Amino acid sequence: MWLGLAFLSAGLLGLYDVCKKHALRDNAVIPILFCNTLVCSVIFLPVAFHTPFGGWVVQRYILLKACIVLSSWLLGYIGIKHLPITIVGPINATRPMMVLVGALIIFGERLNLWSWAGVLLAVLGFFMLSRSGKKEGIDFRHNRWILCTVGASILGAVSGLYDK
After folding, report:
1. CB neighbours of residue 29 within 10 Å
2. Secondary structure (DSSP) of 36-84
């Protein structure tokens, strides 16, 4: 059952990336990101009215989280606009590995052998992706769109670690 749900999640995330790429074609990043944020905000507005305010001490943490997420989204949208999905998708798929490494460093968590194997496979995959990207004319070290996408992934991992 869980494997089926994992495949469904992966398929829906891929569809989401295709829809973002389509929406960004011939459009600027900021208006598309604004519309996406506005629609999502309207959907979740009823929940916000039933959530306690918590005071400004709590709200500053929420504001910091919002800045991290917005920065990640902005860099991600810029990257997906200018790069093929076949490059952006695998870079985004490294986020869980980044969260694992962050959990090791920041929270002192320990991984078992299978988790380490997964991290090594992710690093190997990223290395292979950079080699295949060179064949497509994309230099991972000097391409600003790659840097935006990697920055988005790093900020996404920071967001996940911030939640803990």
Report:
1. 19
2. HHHHHHHHHHHHHHTS---HHHHHHHHHHHHHHHHHHHHHHHHHHHHS-
pLDDT, tens digit (0-9, with 9 covering 90-100), for 132-152: 766 667 777 778 999 999 999
Contacts 24+ apart (CB under 8 A), 49-55: none
* Tokens of residue 85, six digits: 């999905």
pLDDT tens digits along 78-103: 999 999 888 888 888 888 888 988 99
